């Protein structure tokens, strides 16, 4: 969010605009600062993927002493807990986060990656989607991270109930050089998805996308507006009071990203990713997810990538209240 003093003045002899966003003391948004945020946000996963103490230490120097972290339902405060959460697995197991997309807006970055777990001989064990929001301080050090994984999918892959994907090479998706006005408009459209959902008008979300939109969720690729709308209607029966709220709406070029919260009560039979039917329990769950949307020149979504743990509705980690007895 920008303050009323945004774009107040330019440096003498420079056309660089400066802004002081609310809530980040001393932060001045310059091109140099934004480039540093981009570089730092792109460094965490390569460092982590080394699976070494040196890689872990390289990440620690990029965070504030009081970094606030949320890793798939588990919260921590401080660099020590951050380091503990990111400790490499060992025991003949390797973990890799391979970035597909890095969006940077101001002091915030959103990252989409596969989370790939292999043996030391590169035999694939699991591959799921990892999505993260990173907020940086005035020195471009990480001060807050929200990391969202797909634990239910990972479990189903490990048990063989869902087939593993092929371990293909991962490359960064390009970001088109668009006007600021275009990016502003697609951010508005990205925010419209949850607005429509909360108005019980999920069918309108299909009109925000191309007819052949590619939809990626829960380790599956599908095509078409019906598949997109289904992401917003699949809990209509099992979690009928579900509400979704955007925490962040970010944009860069032809991409927009939302980090959102969804909360509701499991009041009917719920189907897990592996097909298991779970009876209602009357308990409320509060979960985080992220959506990465690529827009075409007409301002319609042609790629919609959702990262969220579908099976969180059966996990005690995400309970808001105790289960009624």
Structure description:
The chain is an alpha+beta fold and 325 residues long. The chain folds into 2 domains: 31-158, Nuclear Transport Factor 2, Chain: A (Roll), CATH 3.10.450; 180-318, Nuclear Transport Factor 2, Chain: A. The protein is built from 7 helices and 15 strands. Strands 1, 2, 3, 4, 5, 6 and 7 form a 7-stranded mixed β-sheet that branches. A 6-stranded mixed β-sheet has the order 9-8-15-14-11-10, with helices on one face. The protein is globular and about 45 Å long. The relative contact order is 0.12. Mean pLDDT is 90; it is low at 1-22. Residues 196-298 form the SnoaL-like domain. It holds the Pfam family SnoaL_2.
Instruction: Please tell me the CATH architecture of the largest domain by its name.
Output: Roll
Whole-number tally of structural domains: 2
Return Rg in Å: 20 Å
How confident overall, as mean pLDDT? 90
Q: CATH topology of the largest domain, anyone? A: Nuclear Transport Factor 2, Chain: A
Succession of helices and strands: HHHEEHEEEEEHHEEHEEEEEE
Uncertain stretches: 1-22
What is the CATH class designation of the largest domain? Alpha Beta
Helix/strand structural class: alpha+beta
SS element count, helices:
7
In what range is the share of β-strand residues? 25-35%
- The total strand number stands at 15
The end-to-end span amounts to 43 Å
Largest sheet: 7 strands, mixed
Helical content class:
10-25%
Shape field: globular
């Amino acid at each position: 969010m920008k303050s009323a003093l945004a774009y107040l003045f330019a440096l003498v002899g420079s056309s660089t605009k400066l802004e002081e966003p609310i809530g980040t003391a001393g932060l001045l948004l310059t091109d140099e600062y934004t480039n540093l945020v981009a570089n730092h946000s792109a460094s965490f996963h390569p460092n982590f993927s080394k699976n070494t103490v040196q890689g872990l230490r390289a990440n620690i120097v990029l965070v504030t002493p009081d970094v606030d972290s949320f890793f798939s339902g588990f919260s921590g405060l401080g660099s020590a807990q951050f380091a503990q959460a990111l400790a490499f697995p060992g025991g003949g197991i390797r973990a890799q986060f391979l970035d597909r997309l890095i969006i940077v807006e101001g002091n915030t970055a959103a990252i989409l990656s596969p989370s790939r777990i292999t043996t030391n001989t590169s035999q694939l064990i699991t591959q799921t989607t990892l999505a993260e929001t990173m907020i940086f301080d005035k020195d471009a050090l990480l001060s807050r991270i929200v990391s969202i994984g797909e634990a239910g999918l990972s479990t189903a892959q490990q048990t063989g109930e869902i087939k593993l994907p092929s371990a293909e090479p991962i490359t960064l998706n390009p970001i088109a050089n668009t006007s600021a006005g275009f990016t502003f408009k697609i951010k508005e459209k990205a925010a419209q998805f949850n607005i429509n959902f909360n108005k019980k008008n999920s069918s309108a979300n299909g009109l925000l996308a191309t007819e052949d939109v590619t939809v990626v969720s829960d380790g599956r690729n599908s095509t078409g507006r019906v598949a997109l709308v289904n992401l917003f209607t699949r809990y209509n029966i099992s979690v009928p009071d579900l509400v979704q709220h955007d925490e962040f709406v970010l944009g860069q070029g032809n991409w927009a990203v939302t980090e959102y919260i969804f909360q509701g009560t499991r009041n009917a039979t719920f189907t897990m990713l592996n097909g298991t039917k779970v009876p209602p329990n009357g308990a409320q769950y509060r979960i985080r997810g992220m959506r990465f949307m690529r827009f075409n020149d007409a301002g319609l979504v042609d790629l919609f990538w959702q990262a969220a743990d579908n099976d969180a509705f059966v996990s005690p980690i995400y309970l808001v209240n105790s289960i009624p007895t």
